[in-house]
Specification:
This protein is mainly beta. The chain contains four helices and 24 strands. The strands form six sheets. Strands 4-1-8-7 form a four-stranded antiparallel sheet, with no helix packed on it. Strands 3-2-5-6 form a four-stranded antiparallel sheet. Strands 12-9-16-15 form a four-stranded antiparallel sheet. It is elongated, with a radius of gyration of 27 Å.
């Protein structure tokens, strides 16, 4: 009985590719796509004698090669593809697309072909690349193809030789050509957030440090667990923000999968969803995969069902005309726009059950130390769910004055306290007014010994 190989390694090359660049040659790269699942027969009867709906026939990207500059006869580095990415079917079709790389992200299609794994395993097969846009053009009545795609060699890889699927990766990200959100007198202060799609909603998984005053940042490497994203082919979102004293502004985002990090192709364009499609808009920057390292083991934090946390303030803004402030804080699940248009109109009367915790008021003090409180992980939406801390000055004669707010998560606090040198971690609170910029010291005292599930 023939043993099915675990994976295949192919060597692809282009032959006489169409030139898409004026004044130069194309910079080609190859994209391999397959159908994620076979389409279910629409006439097959399901529960309650109703026909089953066909499953999505949308192609998924399983590999992107590196780009080769200024070359119409490229040979790309060997491509490693696991058999199950062909849906474990030698006769299932895959689509091979060759593009010409463009700096603005609008890569030009050179040509495509649809073939099966069975055809790819023939003796040095050659496939014509067809560009339907050129094929259907009345100006090109003699059009034959846009070049050829050849498989120079292939080899089968068995289980004993196959690379084990790593449980995680260490990835170093950077960016270039970021949009400047700070005008003529400065540059953006970028950081990124990577989110996983769970229950049709993107939930943050990890966040980078902020790098000040640069449009070409290089962030510290991060470790990502495949399990925390639900698998290599689940949707992820990379968002790059500009950190401001009054919050943050979205620079741009990229939608993809965790598998993309494993490809030799290392550049992805950031698009601002509100600017997409507007006249003259191209992109808001380029995210770079500077380094990639599979990990045999990923150390995942053990989260607990609840935490005991102590807060203290430092150099808070003076809000009372004849004295200091009378500060207190509130903890809310998720993030909310508490200030809306008028930051000072708030909390004469608190909404019932609106907040998770309300501290005591400390009178006439700009460096308060509040009593410790317990925060329930489930009430925060889990370890990766964001909650918001708002700081207020109590005013007995009118509305309370807003001092600032902090948006964070249990997972983010864990990351902040990984350093043994930090007994207390300082976080900046944001406010609409620059003179109200304040600090707060966040100290994790202990955890309740019941692991979060």
């Amino acid at each position: 009985r023939t043993v099915q190989p675990f994976a295949y390694q192919f060597e692809f090359s282009g032959v006489h590719l169409a030139n898409m660049d004026v004044g130069g040659k194309s910079d080609p790269f190859l994209v391999i796509r397959s159908t994620p699942e076979k389409v279910v027969d629409a006439f097959q009867v399901g529960p309650n004698n109703r026909p089953n709906k066909p499953k999505s026939n949308k192609l998924k990207t399983i590999y992107i090669t590196e780009k080769i500059n200024d070359n119409l006869n490229p040979t790309w580095k060997p491509v490693f593809i696991e058999f199950d990415l062909f849906n474990c079917d030698k006769y299932a079709e895959v689509q091979l697309d060759v593009y010409d790389y463009d700096d603005d992200g609008t890569h030009d299609l050179i040509g495509s072909c649809k073939v099966s794994l069975f055809e790819m395993l023939m003796n040095k097969p050659v496939f014509p690349l067809i560009n339907n846009k050129h094929k259907d053009s009345y100006r090109l009545t003699s059009y034959r193809n846009s070049g050829l795609l050849a498989i120079k060699s292939y080899r089968e890889i068995g289980m004993e030789e196959a690379r084990q699927r790593p449980p995680g990766f260490r990835i170093g990200l950077g960016a270039k050509k970021l949009a400047n959100m700070d005008g003529f007198f400065g540059k953006s202060d970028p950081f990124f957030v990577i989110s996983a799609k769970k229950n049709k909603v993107f939930e943050p998984v990890t966040k980078s440090e902020v790098i000040s005053d640069t449009l070409s940042p290089t962030w510290k490497p991060i470790e990502l667990s495949v399990q925390s994203f639900g698998g290599l082919d689940k949707k992820i979102k990379i968002e790059v923000y500009d950190k401001d004293r009054d919050g943050q502004q979205l620079i741009g985002e990229h939608l993809g999968t965790l598998r993309e990090f494993t490809f030799p192709f290392k550049e992805y364009h950031l698009i601002h969803p509100k600017k997409k499609g507007t006249l003259g808009y191209k992109y808001s920057g380029i995210i770079l995969v500077n380094s990639f390292e599979p990990l045999a083991y990923v150390c995942q934090a053990t989260y607990f069902s609840s935490y005991t946390i102590k807060l203290s303030g430092k150099a808070l803004d003076r809000k009372d005309f004849a004295g200091k402030s009378d500060p207190f804080f509130l903890v809310y699940p998720k993030a909310r726009n508490s200030t809306k248009k008028k930051p000072k109109t708030a909390h004469k009367k608190e909404k019932p059950n609106g907040h998770l915790y309300k501290s005591e008021v400390i009178h006439q003090n700009l460096n308060p130390v509040w009593k410790a409180f317990t925060l329930d992980t489930n009430q925060c939406g889990g370890p990766n769910g964001f909650f918001q801390i708002e700081l207020w000055d109590q005013d007995s004669k009118g509305a309370n004055d807003f001092l600032g707010k902090l948006r964070t998560s249990i997972a983010e606090l864990h990351k902040a306290f990984e350093s043994k040198e930090l007994r207390a971690r300082e976080f900046a609170l944001t406010n609409k007014y620059k003179h109200s910029f304040v600090f707060i010291y966040f100290q994790l005292i202990k955890t309740v010994a019941h692991p979060f599930t």
